[in-house]
Amino acid sequence: MRLFFELAARSFRRTLTYRIATLAGLITNIFFGLIRSSVLVALFGQQSEVSGYTVTSIITYTGLSQALIAYLMLFGWYDLMDGVHTGEISTQLLKPLSLFRYWLAHDLGRAIAHLFLRGVSIMLIYELMFDLTYPKDLGHWLALLVSLFFAWWLSMVWRFLVNLAAFWSPNAQGFGRLLFFAANFFSGFMMPLGLFPDWLQTLCYLTPFPYMINVVIEIYLNIITGSELFFLLGLQLVWILGLSLISQFILTMGIRKLAIAGG
Amino acid sequence: MESIIRVDGLAKHFSVRKHYKGRFAPLKNFFTREASTVKAVDDLNFEINPGELVGYLGPNGAGKSTTLKMLTGLLVPSHGEVRVSGFNPWKERKAYVRHIGAVFGQRTTLWWDLPVVESLELLKYVYHIPEARFRENLSHFIDLLELSPFLGTPVRALSLGQRMRADLCAALLHDPRLLFLDEPTIGLDVVAKERIRDFIKYLNQERKTTVILTTHDLADVQKLCQRIMIIDQGKLLFDGGLERLQERFGGKRQLIVDFAEHYPDVHVAQAQLKDYQNRRAIYEFDRRELSASELIGQVSSQFQIQDLTVREPDIEATIRNIYEKQLLKVPET
User: Fold this and answer.
1) What is the pTM of this model?
2) CB contacts, 8 Å: A259 with chain B
3) For labelling alongside A136, which of A17, A166, A183, B135 has CA 20 to 30 A away?
4) Do A263 and B125 count as a contact with CB atoms less than 8 A apart?
5) What's the rounded Cα separation, in Å, for the pair B279 and B266?
């Protein structure tokens, strides 16, 4: 546990060293947030509410989904994949640690740094520009924190799983890009799932992806409440455990197949 | 003495896709999946005892790194057995790597964007090193490797020599009994190489660490290794001491003679005249057939000599001799 903490702390400090990149990313996220919110607001036209979303909550939605980009690395994460392709992974395998837990700790440090640098910061800037919705009470704030943490955990396990493709293909980036794109569609990142037709919503909720984004946002917007809230937090945990087991199994097979390049 | 490394019939075969050439080759390459097998390592057998310092040599692509990766548990062998300190490296990877140190010269284990000392401190937790032991080792290695000037510098800002020293330190903080070094002096300047060599020598002699190193720099071999293994095309070609290698495969010795006056013909019976210009002749002779003094006797009995030198074959020439002429040609199986 101490090792996990020390790794995460280093990864946190490492992320803080990229100042210019953080600023550039922040500006881009806000810029696209503004574009997305104006498009969605235009879709509302004269209506004040669409599928349970008000103009205020749809603007808050764009802010939240932009704020999750860096925290959850929504546009893709290829560190493990690159490590396999360049052979850098050998330096991790030569340490007495589990590759899975190593990357989990590593990503946790990064995610916490990004949550503040490119998450909370976006919401603060949004607050200066718009009227926003907030979780209605302390209980909801707590539930939000828990589901945010679970969302990161689930997203990390999912990204880890995608990256394992590198053990089988020397060019797995394209495969990864496709999967990350699909995830963004099914997760409610591009559009709130509430705006999808019912059959598509049902389909989405058969995948782990809404539990990374849509659930978090709907808890924030007070759309998910009461016993449904606990049920969905539980499902987040179920997906985390399920995908963790699968990735452990595939990782074991991958390491056996590994041919480390170079040197 | 119980051996620390035992390798029996070790082999690693890679399957490589066939590539066609010619007009329709791209199509053919796309649709066929014919593969051929490359034997990167083929039937290796050796033992290494605790405290040895072994140089593992071979031309590029000979199978050195593949062997090292199997010994460190990074690659799963196709055939054969490896036991290192009682472990099967790839089956018991996590338990096993606790007992070894490894530096792969072209890679770093340090965190690229963080100060060196942060990476070193992390190892205390990675290996669960007791605090007192960790401090003692760290300060000792900082002195020996002269790390203090750049402990606070991010790794990406280090020179190659500094990075290599920091990586060596990182590989040793947990007191491994066995150290694998893959080209530890690659790309370093003369001074940096010398410093690394001194350090390796210290580890082996003072700390009794068993060291296995691969290198293309034969000065490393000459200064460090008691035992040499040469591998080519996946097979072990030579295993023994440096002297035995010189004895068996050393090129010829040379006798360089400056004559007092010009002679039209300076040939002598047992040595070969390699060059003769401006009253200087170079004879080549084999130590097994002729001693230097016999040859000098022969030459001086026929001609007036002004000056002479005997030149020993250097290890570089010896190894080149082995690689190029395939003196240790692999027996057909």
Assistant:
1) 0.85
2) 14, 75
3) A183
4) no
5) 10
Provide the residue ranges of all domains of chain B, joining segments of one domain with +. Answer: 5-247, 252-312
pLDDT for position B327: 60
Angstrom distances, CA of residue A150 to CA of A207, A216, A232, A234:
15, 9, 11, 10
Q: How confident is the model at residue B37 (pLDDT cuts 50, 70, 90)?
A: confident
Strands B53-57 and B35-48: unpaired
The minimum CA-CA distance between A168 and chain B, rounded to whole Å, is 13
User: Where does residue B121 rank: exposed (0-12), middle (13-18), buried (19+ CB within 10 A)?
Assistant: middle
Residue B171 has pLDDT above 80, yes or no: yes
- Report chain A (263 residues): mean pLDDT per 10 consecutive residues: 94 93 95 94 86 91 96 96 90 92 96 97 95 94 97 98 92 93 95 93 96 96 93 97 96 81 44
Which residues of chain B from 146 to 175 reach within 8 Å of chain A, CB to CB?
A: 154
Cβ-defined contacts of A43-52 (< 8 Å, 24+): A50/A195, A51/A192, A51/A194, A51/A195, A52/A194, A52/A223
| A97 neighbourhood in chain B, CB within 8 Å | 94, 126
CB within 8 Å: A96 and B107: no
Residue A263 confidence (pLDDT): 38
Domain boundaries, chain A: 2-257
